[in-house]
Design a protein that fits this description.
Length: about 300
């Protein structure tokens, strides 16, 4: 039986509707419009596309969107000064510094400078620690989007075997924390894992976040498993031009999986929806309101 396709684009549209409803309520009942500031340092065509679509989504949700495009030669001190200003700006509830930053800037230092309450990426060590200890954190957007899709597809995740492939701070590690919080038995596998296919074959839930095009194939997948593909790899087409593929060999894996996310149209759109969701969450917390329904982990 062919796998169910998890339509991330359609689900993201639903999440964005929810975001919009919360924004309307914040504006009408509290006179506050959530604001998101995105900071981009240097020129990177892929980043610029992403920043533009984020700005558009932010405005469509009825929120304030601010973009700061800084020259590639911007000093670390100048970037830190801008973050300080955004931290103090009452109209800004979320701050995102697009990664990667140029080599002469220390990314860890920059992330540490963001007010943890405005850290909508969830990359500040305070938020990492809060998530790891089961406290109220800002949760990284991509893992949050993956979790929302898994819950939507599977209902309760309790007791399931989950294997996360990839140990990055932005996806693998926080994804594992969220799955653990939902009572999965969690394995983080990576490039040094012995018998990676054998480890992945145990999984009811597979989250692939390695950055290697089409790495995961059907022999790795337990029949009926749910497969979330976080990879976004641009590869050359034989006939010229490029196309986006994930870390999962979609056509192949779809033959055995129970459900699978496509690339594009899977995790990517959910990441943007969750960025908006996190901005609303940050705004609600600042105002001392209840957690916005359907937008948090
Ligand atoms: N501080 C920070 N936070 C981030 O969240 C962050 C970042 N830096 N740096 C870059 C990556 C990349 N990223 C994407 C989000 C959505 C799509 C997305 O929506 N992709 C579409 C396809 C877009 C296309 O066709 O090119 C899809 O998957 O359907 C892609 C990439 C967030 N990132």
């Amino acid at each position: 039986m062919a796998a169910t396709v998890i339509d991330g684009k359609a689900f993201a549209a639903k999440v964005r509707e929810r975001v919009k409803a919360h924004v309307t309520r914040l504006v009408e009942e509290h006179g506050v419009m959530p604001g998101l500031a995105v900071v981009l340092v240097g020129e990177n065509p892929a980043s610029e596309v992403y920043v533009r679509s984020k700005g558009k989504a932010t405005r469509e949700a009825g929120m304030k969107s601010v973009e700061h495009k800084l020259d590639a030669a911007t000093s670390e001190a100048d970037l830190l000064a801008l973050i300080g200003e955004l931290n103090r700006d009452e109209t800004i509830h979320g701050i995102l510094v697009q990664l990667p930053v140029p080599d002469h800037i220390d990314a860890d230092k920059v992330l540490a400078a963001i007010d943890p309450a405005k850290d909508v990426d969830g990359f500040h060590i305070s938020n990492v620690g809060l998530l790891g200890t089961g406290q109220k954190a800002m949760v990284p957007c991509t893992p949050l989007g993956c979790l929302m899709m898994l819950r939507e597809e599977l209902g309760s995740l309790s007791g399931m075997e989950a294997v996360v492939i990839g140990r990055s701070n932005i996806v693998g590690k926080p994804m594992a924390q969220l799955l653990l919080k939902d009572s999965c038995t969690v394995t983080i596998a990576h490039s040094r894992t012995r018998d990676l296919p054998g480890v992945v074959r145990r999984a009811d839930i597979v989250v692939a976040a390695v950055g290697r095009p089409n790495m995961v194939t059907s022999e790795w997948i337990k029949p009926g498993a749910t497969v979330i593909d976080v990879g976004i790899n641009r590869i050359e087409k034989p006939e010229g031009g490029t196309r986006l593929v994930g870390d999962v060999d979609y056509e192949d894996v779809a033959k055995v999986a129970g459900a699978i996310t496509p690339v594009p149209g899977g995790v990517g759109p959910m990441t943007i929806a969750c960025l908006l969701a996190n901005t609303v969450t940050a705004c609600c917390r600042k105002l001392g309101l209840a957690e916005p329904e359907g937008l948090t982990a």
